[in-house]
């Protein structure tokens, strides 16, 4: 919720300086991209926790209950497996970025903000989503009994 408010303020600032002062501030664009990334990744973990994801269930509603239970377990299994793979791939990348104190120099040498911390946000978000799939999987398999 706070990230959305902060994104709004940053975008209003950027648009105001660009249109009213005729001076685009590339730092504001950069910060808004970071905030959108944080909102997206951590928002996905939060939405999974709250059970708020939307699914297209045209076929799902037409299959028998037993098939739905199997599909639920397969679905959660795919999310868990994907999460594990992303953690195994992303952690070394984030660790290396932290060790070299990586910065984004695409905006020039005057404004080269650190980006190593942003890579850890992606890893942490995937860890949170993956950890949430474990009790979900246990609940779905318990329903089979």
Automatic annotation (TrEMBL):
UniProt keyword terms in alphabetical order: Cell inner membrane, Cell membrane, Membrane, Transmembrane, Transmembrane helix, Transport
InterPro entries: DctQ, TRAP_DctQ
Record flagged with keyword Amino-acid biosynthesis: no
Membrane association type: Multi-pass membrane protein
Chloroplast recorded as keyword: no
Compartment(s): Cell inner membrane
Transmembrane annotation, as ranges: 27-49, 70-95, 115-138
Pfam families: DctQ (PF04290)
Limits of the Tripartite ATP-independent periplasmic transporters DctQ component domain: 7-141
A GO CC term attached to the entry: plasma membrane
Predominant subcellular localization, coarse grouping: membrane
PANTHER family: 2,3-DIKETO-L-GULONATE TRAP TRANSPORTER SMALL PERMEASE PROTEIN YIAM, SLL1102 PROTEIN
Name assigned to this protein: TRAP-T family protein transporter, small (4 TMs) inner membrane subunit
